[in-house]
Specification:
alpha/beta; seven-stranded parallel β-sheet; Rossmann fold; 35% helix
């Protein structure tokens, strides 16, 4: 599995969160029975969406984190516990919740250590995993596909720094072990959700944001591969809201969670973004082989596009759809993402963290035209 792609999937579950979040779902009615929900994390990318959606449905929410990421931005109704997954878990002791949602975990030791305290004190455990756990994504996979195996040193001594140093090669295998820890400590009570690429407003990695920003700028846009190449992703708000509804329904088991509901081609994706933004951009499609020659990479230089790993964009989500996973229109995600990005300081806007710079894009387009005479 491509290291760059692993890195981007990883960032999709741990992206930063900047401003207030507004619930924007047709499902935002209050639930029948209020729950006591513990969210491990809660201040990253998807966590604040979970928090506000849960509050809108009448639940009582507690978060547990270090209190360092965007402190003071959660609603006053939220009980905020301060601690650290690396050994500072006392704030979780002698408490009870109906469900715990584990958002930021990569290391199996984090699950083990929290579970030793929470076992018997939470009725359900929701672990947010990733489709990077699959050993082979060359073909569209379902939840029964073989998983990546960890073959490094003691996984319970791994650190986030070591995962980064590996180029995220150990990310998927460690997530696999983390899933196993969750099921070990909460047998029959565990819900495992495996998202694909998570996108939308507040995503600090820019791995989808590049496209609304670039298309809004207009002009000739470099488009990768073939218009028929498949793409998959999920708006963070759709993922967060569905996670809360699954917790309400006391669901267990394993579910892939990406989208949209029907197959989407990258040509359609770009056209829908263009229409949503009323852009005058035009697309010039450059073949995958030519992009390789120009050292233009899938996922990093051409976000969302899977390049040679098109099977990754054919992940099967039938089980999640059957349990009510829904998706807002792509145009809404594009407009909201662009509006959020334009609210950032100008210095930040000038430095997209994914996609081609204008100079690199112009060079590749010029090289393509020269090759065609």
């Amino acid at each position: 599995m491509n290291t760059t792609r692993r890195h981007f999937i990883k960032l999709s579950t741990a992206g930063m969160f900047s401003l207030a979040v507004r619930p924007t779902s047709l499902h935002a009615e209050k639930s029948v029975r209020p729950l006591r929900i513990l969210i491990l994390g809660g201040t990253g990318f998807t966590g604040p969406y979970q928090v506000r959606y849960a509050l809108s449905r009448g639940h009582k929410v507690t978060t547990f984190n270090r209190g360092k990421t965007h402190p003071g931005e959660l609603p006053k109704e939220v009980e905020q516990l301060i601690g650290d997954r690396n050994g500072q878990l006392d704030a979780l002791k002698n408490r009870q919740w109906d469900v715990a949602i584990d958002n930021p975990t990569t290391l199996p030791a984090w699950v083990r250590d929290a579970a030793q305290i929470l076992k018997g004190n939470v009725k359900r455990y929701v672990f947010i995993s990733t489709i990077s756990v699959y050993a082979d994504t060359r073909q569209g996979v379902d939840e029964t596909a073989p998983l990546a195996k960890y073959d490094g040193p003691d996984p319970y001594k791994e650190t986030i720094e070591a995962v980064k140093a590996s180029g995220y090669k150990t990310y998927g295998p460690l997530k696999t072990l983390s899933e196993q820890e969750a099921e070990k400590w909460f047998p029959g009570k565990t819900l495992i959700i495996r998202p694909g690429l998570i996108v939308g407003p507040r995503d600090e990695t820019d791995r989808f944001t590049y496209w609304p920003v670039r298309i809004d700028r207009g002009g000739e846009v470099l488009a990768p591969g073939k218009p028929s190449d498949p793409v998959q992703f999920i708006d963070a708000r759709d993922l967060a809201e569905w996670t809360i509804r699954m917790a309400e329904n006391q669901e267990t088991g394993i579910y892939n969670a990406t989208g949209p509901a029907k197959p989407l081609e990258i040509g359609q994706m770009l056209d829908e973004i263009k229409d949503a933004l009323h852009s005058s951009a035009t697309f010039t499609w450059l073949p995958a082989e030519f992009l390789k020659q120009q050292k233009v990479e899938a996922w990093s230089d051409m976000p969302v596009w899977a390049g040679d790993e098109l099977g990754l964009a054919r992940t099967k989500i039938d089980r999640a759809l059957a349990k009510g996973l829904t998706f807002r229109p792509l145009g809404e995600t594009a407009r909201d993402t662009l509006a959020w990005f334009k609210s950032l300081p100008q210095e930040r806007q000038s430095k997209l963290r994914a996609g081609l710079t204008p100079e690199r894009e112009a060079e590749a387009l010029a090289a393509w035209k020269r090759s065609k005479g």
